Amino acid sequence: MRAFAQLLERLAFTPARNAKLLILRHYLDKTPDPDRGWALAALTGDLKLRAVTPTLLRGLVAERVDQQLFALSYDFVGDLAETIALIWDSEGDDDMPLREAVDLLAMTGKAALPAAIAAVLDRLGPSERLAFLKLATGNMRVGLSARMARMALAQMGAPDVPDLEEIWHGIAPPYPEMFGWIQGGPRPDSAAKAPFRPVMLSTAVDLEQLRALDPADYLGEWKWDGIRVQAVSDGGVRRLYSRTGEDISAAFPDVIAAMNFDGAADGELLVRRDGAVATFNELQQRLNRKTVTRTMLASHPAGLRLYDLLIWQGDDLRDRPLAERRAVLETVDFGSDRIDVSTLLDFDGWDDLAALRANPPDAVIEGVMIKRRDSAYLGGRPRGPWFKWKRDPMNVDAVMMYAQRGHGKRSGFYSDFTFGLWDGEGLVPVGKAYFGFTDEELRALDRFVRQNTTERFGPVRALAPKLVLEVAFEGVNASTRHKSGVAMRFPRISRIRWDKPVAEADRLETLKAMIA
Q1: What is the DSSP-derived secondary structure letter of residue 473?
Q2: Which of 123, 271, 401, 471 is most exposed, with the fewest beta carbons within 10 Å of its own?
Q3: Is the pLDDT score of 193 beyond 70?
Q4: Catalytic residue among 30, 134, 193, 223
């Protein structure tokens, strides 16, 4: 656990990407199996352990520490795990193998888990306690993505990043076959059982950047506001995966039943009624479910709009040009009205495409996709072949109402802000944002929060209505789950209006008028 704790600390406090890769590579080189595999799984989000909730941890600390002292400490530190690690009443300085911690969290029953966690915290020092609690909660927050982890692995041996991504979802922690392959052994047999292939992503573009490109080299299609998925039907087994490789099949049995084909296709998951595409807010009600009711299946019917073919009837098409893959895709009869193919846009120049983007046929469209006709299907985000040109964001001027401490490197700052609009004579919360500002602006916002707090609720502070934030967002929908009656899509702070009186902030009816 001590080596794992040092790894987390070094990653968290190292901003440069190449330096992070070097730190992780050295850890993986020096750490024996299976500890390095468990550490890698924890960092990439692939370690599935019994969930240790904040409620459980608060209950533990309540038995050992004065609650007023804990509340003051938590308010100062801003991170629950770090607060507990620092304030835990123990002089322990023992160590434990990472595999022992994983076994304890994976195998201990629910009733015995609190006592087992307390016993471990008694054994360990503060840094090791924090690492254990991060492992237990699954909350790493050290600025390392799963792709960066695979880049570090690729620096250790023969397989490159695409090779590793090809097998990643067919292997399980602690990855003994993969480490054997990196060290010169055979490619893991389990790779053949991995139906998910790495998804190809796009980069953002604007009109001025497009003018340097020849429009004749590109295809265009609408960018629908659903979620990107990969639909795989292989040897009678049907699966639906998110863009990160998460199996979401259980939430969409209606789509699974319609996947009567042999291959792997890339597309958008949407809720559709009588051919019309519903809002993302309605699709969201189908997500993250282990089961789905008949009522939900009837009221929120899902379907696929396909963009590309990766595998078809045993042939891997990914190395072929996009135009060829599309030609195959357009000849397929999927035999279900739940599955169709994205329509290609007719444009001669970038100004033509700009006119289409400015006047889409459906309010659920969030822009256009632009793809090179000759592009192969490459996992990850290669710069150049595919672009996304999203619609211009909507904006409202809102009043900051609440602030909450951040996590990880932001745990010392108030960085999560709830904002509201005027409704009658009062403010009603309409959303929350935690990005869109620079580090310098974050420090200024943090000072504002500390100087204008009116009430405290644990890590949250209520604020005097004195600051206007210009909030940009991708869309807005009616919502019965929110007091305001609206739900914003991807809100972020685009500008801090230090100059604007709060009385001039927008009203709730202005936001409601933007609902498609």
Answers
A1: E
A2: 123
A3: no
A4: 223
